[in-house]
Design goal:
Length: about 400
């Protein structure tokens, strides 16, 4: 049976039998929120009943409202504030109302909210509870309270094998209930053959011989953008001290979209750039609607995050044939394979990042080879249709178990 036939089978089985409530209470517009948006779009486009609980006026809320005909099928329930993380009585009333109205799957994109979801669902044994986790946990949660909370969770969905093992090690969840669902990307919008970044590179002052090193993501200390600034200063010092042996370099830091572009940390980064006197070489861009074009303009993509798992932005870079330099945190070692698609550096070590970047800056053939292999890998393993199929399979299995109660 083909993937499309299998997906169609799950859709037919769930149609009229599934009433899903998705929960994504975030005011950012990063990988988690974009993943939630894409999931909602694909589920609604399949004709399934979907509700979304989100924050009033959040980027996710606004994207859903302007999303077109298919997203009109998503019933949005906006809240003015995020529920408390433990035993929120008002949130209990809202959940109870939704269950009365037919909701039989609750899927939260925040494990932090399970303390205000799980306790109220013990009285509703036929309702499925799922949670997605995107970040590695640093603390052990094998305590009585978390055992009670996770005892009601039917499945924890994660984005990589590394994250799956982390959840098994740190959470009171049985191994069989922790399931990998790869992130999914629509490659029609991320195809290097269909994007021309020449004009974009010109605006950066980058000619064909310039090596452009870029990063994309929410500007925040945990994303580690200051490590890239420090590595940039070191590389530029090397370049000017090597009598032209290194090519001209440009560093592009793409921040959040217009909703959240003016963060204090961005100002700190700009001040650091001034202190190093490298303003001519470091450019800050807003996170807009031209990510594919910007990534097509990169020769190297960097993710210097201190605490991260596999997300959409890395897949987008790979789809645009960007070789990667990623911190060795979370699932990133798993992402680059055996240095097939890029290199890793020691987390929080700007000098080691500088060293790995120097390796790729000096070898254009290696960059091109890694980029080509990266695209082939993500197209094969991270298509949105594969994510939809895997998600529907889990929904169907969990519903069947719960309906037997």
């Amino acid at each position: 049976m083909s993937n499309s036939d299998s997906t169609r089978g799950f859709i037919d089985a769930l149609s009229g039998n599934m009433n899903l409530l998705k929960i994504c209470m975030s005011r950012f517009w990063g990988g988690v929120e974009q993943t939630a948006f894409n999931d909602l779009y694909d589920l609604a486009s399949s004709g399934l009943d979907v509700k979304l609980l989100c924050l009033q006026g959040s980027p996710l809320h606004e994207e859903i409202l302007k999303g077109g005909n298919d997203l009109e099928k998503v019933h949005v329930i906006p809240l003015e504030s995020r529920p408390r993380e433990v035993l929120d009585l008002q949130f209990r009333g809202l959940l109870h109302e939704q269950i009365i109205n037919g909701v039989n799957i609750v899927h939260s994109h925040h494990t932090s909210l399970l303390g205000s979801i799980s306790p109220w669902l013990w009285r509703h044994p036929r309702v499925v509870l799922l949670a997605s986790r995107y970040l590695m946990a640093a603390e052990d949660k094998h305590d009585p309270i978390h055992r009670l909370i996770y005892g009601r969770v039917d499945s924890v969905l994660v984005t990589s094998e590394s994250l799956r093992q982390n959840v098994i090690d740190t959470h009171p969840v049985k191994e069989r209930r922790v399931r990998v669902v790869n992130p999914g990307l629509d490659f029609a919008g991320f195809d290097p053959a269909l994007v021309n970044a020449q004009t974009r590179r010109q605006t950066w002052g980058a000619d064909e011989k310039t090596v452009v090193i870029g990063t994309v993501g929410r500007i925040h200390p945990e994303k580690g953008q200051e490590l890239l600034v420090k590595a940039a200063a070191g590389l530029l010092k090397d370049r000017f001290g090597s009598r032209g042996e290194m090519p001209q370099l440009k560093f592009i830091i793409v921040g959040e979209d217009a909703h959240h572009s003016g963060t204090p940390f961005r100002s700190e980064l700009q001040e650091l750039v001034r202190q190093f006197r490298i303003q001519e070489h470091v450019i800050f861009e807003d996170y807009g609607d031209h990510v594919a074009e910007m990534m097509q303009g990169f020769d190297i993509f960097v993710m210097p995050a201190r605490r991260e798992s596999l997300g959409l932005v890395v897949l987008e870079a790979m789809a645009m044939e960007c070789p990667l330099v990623l911190s060795d945190t979370g699932s990133f070692r798993e992402v680059v394979g055996n240095q097939d698609y890029g290199l890793t550096f020691r987390s929080d070590d700007a000098f080691n990042l500088q060293r790995q970047l120097r390796t790729l800056v000096a070898d254009s053939e290696l960059r091109a080879k890694m980029g080509r292999q990266a695209r082939l890998h993500v197209v094969k393993n991270y298509h949105r249709s594969l994510r939809l199929q895997r998600t529907l399979e889990i929904y169907d299995r969990c519903l069947k178990v719960r309906q037997a109660f």
